[in-house]
Amino acid sequence: MTRPFLPEAPADAACTGTTILVIDDSATIRSAAAKILGEAGYRVVVAENGFEALAKIADCQPALIVCDIVMPRLDGYRTCALIKASAAYHATPVLMLSSKEGLFDRARGAMAGASACLAKPLAREALLEAVRLHLAGHFE
């Protein structure tokens, strides 16, 4: 059985700062996350859905991904699983966003390869703390 794959990361990609990819079908959440992360000094790339994110990932080279769970066509669990199945991005931390703070969402996210699950609406400090924690672990 063949596994879906993502494009390989370009070997000569110039790093222009720590990039975070935010995937959410809600323009409000994308905007809020971009504002919070941008003000904290991160470079933010946004995607409206999982397919758009998979198309952008090789170009933006994210150090971390924030991904909504409930999205049309390709949900966050499947998006995360596809990212984690890629040799180039399997180590990239993925923070899942859930409108419900339930054990089921956290467990299913972990099964897909997510590093953590954050509750919506986004709390500025919770998002920044999770990003700092998972970036620190990623770059050790």
What descriptive keywords fit this protein?
140 residues, alpha/beta, five-stranded parallel beta sheet, 5 helices, 5 strands
Q: What can you see in these coordinates?
A:
This is Response regulator. The modification 4-aspartylphosphate is found at residue 68. Residues 19-135 form the Response regulatory domain. Keywords: Phosphoprotein, Two-component regulatory system. The chain is of the alpha/beta class and 140 residues long. Helix content is 41%, strand content 17%. The chain is built from 5 helices and 5 strands. The chain has a 5-stranded parallel beta sheet, sandwiched between helices. α2 (50-60) runs parallel beside α3 and α3 packs parallel to α4. The protein is globular. The chain starts with 18 loop residues before the first strand and ends with a helix.
Could you give the topology of this structure?
Layout lengths: L18 E5 L3 H13 L3 E5 L2 H11 L3 E5 L7 H9 L9 E5 L4 H10 L3 E4 L4 H15 L2
Parallel strand pairs: 1-2, 1-3, 3-4, 4-5
Helix pairs in contact: 2-3, 3-4
Which regions have little confidence, pLDDT < 50, spanning 5+ residues? 1-16
Largest sheet: 5 strands, parallel
> Taking strands numbered 1, 2, ... along the chain, how are they ordered across the largest sheet?
2-1-3-4-5
Supply the helix-strand structural class.
alpha/beta
Ends distance: 34 Å
Number of strands: 5
- Mean pLDDT across all residues, rounded? 85
β content, as a range? Answer: 15-25%
Instruction: Report the principal-axis shape.
Output: globular
Separate helix tally: 5
Radius of gyration: 14 Å
Which percent bin holds the helix content? 40-55%
Order of helices and strands: EHEHEHEHEH
Keywords: Phosphoprotein, Two-component regulatory system
Protein name: Response regulator
Pfam family, one: Response_reg
Organism: Janthinobacterium kumbetense
